[in-house]
From TrEMBL:
<dbReference type="InterPro" id="IPR003489">
    <property type="entry name" value="RHF/RaiA"/>
</dbReference>
<protein>
    <submittedName>
        <fullName>Ribosome-associated translation inhibitor RaiA</fullName>
    </submittedName>
</protein>
<dbReference type="InterPro" id="IPR036567">
    <property type="entry name" value="RHF-like"/>
</dbReference>
<dbReference type="Pfam" id="PF02482">
    <property type="entry name" value="Ribosomal_S30AE"/>
</dbReference>
Amino acid sequence: MNYTENYRGIKIDVQSVNLDIDGAVQEEIRSSIDKLSKFTQDINAVDVYFKTEGQGGTAKHVVGMRVGIPGPDVFAEDKGDHWVPLLKDVVDKLVRQLKKSK
């Protein structure tokens, strides 16, 4: 499932390979953008990637997020078992990068 939306002037592009992203995860993506916006007002676009690596009981979810800002973009990725906590961890990593770049 892939979808694109415009949220507060920021283009969000979500890509998930053979996965359906439910409304709770979509709302968490918007909440994540609100949090990132506190650290920079210059966000042009956000790309979010969801995928699953492995199969069966050893499968791990992977979430990656690229934030398009003037200059070099920031990117973070994390692996784990649940989408929402992974998304929060990725946002925390991005916040640290944005703080460093100031």
